[in-house]
């Protein structure tokens, strides 16, 4: 069985910490480098539900996309929910490791997994990382569908292929418009509008889109917008990352047991459709 330090070194090789944004907090949060690792759980969020899942699974390592602490803290008292997470992890000998923006821009990374879940062929990064001579790393991906799709069909495919959430998929735009090219970005994507416009794509699929950026984007072009739940857009990365670690484990003869959490940790838990829906078809009226 490998030690935690060996597994972390392999993960750091996939998602080097120095490629994370300067404001980010990635790397090992909890864990003894000398402890042995047999079972690993991948999840989007380091929250009570996924930590409890790691305990039940008898996991030795929980790898999450989102950081536990994005800023410094002066307490890990169990009276705080993050402190409780730290206590539960340490009491159960479970390490926590975070790969966040360093996994977003990786090749393959979060948006590759999102595109893969939707059967989209990747053309290039939406915001290329200038330090990658191969031009494959970067934020978001510009893709084309495996076959001609309309906006409605792309939304239906996202609703079907991404894990189910209360939100589902929101659409802004003509549902019958063709989607020949689409930009995707796992997680909050509305800071990427300028890049999406410059890419000249027909549609943009991401999460956490807000009123004003969407309103302005719609006023300026025919770009269709698809807004999925943040958690759902990043969850496919867990499966990709687990497969990558499985392959590393095989190569090293580690015999790791690698699992992916299916617990929905999107914070939105219910959706009530309006009593009088103005226009669900999106057709002009
Ligand atoms: Zn995220």
Structural description of this entry:
With 285 residues, the protein is of the alpha/beta class. The chain folds into two domains: 127 residues, Udp-n-acetylmuramoylalanyl-d-glutamate--2,6- Diaminopimelate Ligase, Chain: A, domain 1 (3-Layer(aba) Sandwich); 123 residues, NIF3 (NGG1p interacting factor 3)-like (Udp-n-acetylmuramoylalanyl-d-glutamate--2,6- Diaminopimelate Ligase, Chain: A, domain 1, 3-Layer(aba) Sandwich). The protein has nine helices and 13 strands. The strands form three sheets. A six-stranded mixed β-sheet has the order 5-6-10-11-12-8, sandwiched between helices. Strands 1-4-3-2-13 form a five-stranded mixed β-sheet, with helices on both faces. A two-stranded antiparallel sheet has the order 7-9. The termini are far apart. Zinc ion (ZN) binds next to helix 9. It comes from Streptomyces griseoflavus Tu4000. Pfam families: DUF34_NIF3 (PF01784). Homohexamer. Keywords: Metal-binding.
């Amino acid at each position: 069985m490998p030690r935690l330090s060996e597994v972390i070194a392999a993960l750091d090789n996939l998602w080097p910490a120095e490629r994370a944004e300067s404001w980010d907090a990635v790397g090992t949060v909890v864990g003894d480098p000398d402890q042995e690792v047999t079972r690993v759980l991948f999840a989007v969020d380091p929250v009570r539900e996924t930590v409890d899942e790691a305990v039940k699974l008898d996991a030795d390592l929980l790898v999450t996309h989102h950081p536990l602490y994005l800023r410094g803290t002066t307490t890990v008292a169990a009276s705080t929910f993050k402190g409780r997470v730290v206590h539960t992890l340490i009491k159960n000998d479970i390490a926590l490791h975070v790969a966040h923006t360093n996994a977003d821009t990786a090749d393959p990374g979060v948006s590759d997994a999102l595109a893969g879940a939707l059967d989209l062929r990747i053309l290039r990064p939406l915001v290329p990382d200038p330090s990658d001579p191969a031009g494959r790393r970067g934020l978001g991906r510009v893709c084309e569908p495996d076959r001609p799709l309309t906006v409605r069909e792309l939304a239906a495919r996202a609703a079907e292929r991404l894990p189910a959430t209360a939100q589902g998929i929101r659409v802004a735009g003509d549902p019958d418009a063709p989607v020949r090219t689409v930009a995707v970005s796992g997680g909050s994507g509305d800071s990427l509008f300028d890049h999406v416009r410059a890419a000249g794509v027909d549609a943009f699929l991401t999460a956490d889109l807000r009123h004003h950026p969407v309103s302005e984007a719609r006023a300026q072009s025919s770009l269709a917008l698809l807004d999925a739940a943040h958690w759902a857009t990043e969850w496919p990365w867990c499966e990709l990352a687990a497969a990558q670690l499985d392959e590393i484990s095989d190569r090293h003869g580690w015999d790791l047991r690698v699992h992916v959490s299916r617990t929905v940790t999107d914070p939105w838990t219910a959706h009530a459709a309006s009593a009088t829906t103005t226009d669900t078809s999106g057709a002009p009226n």
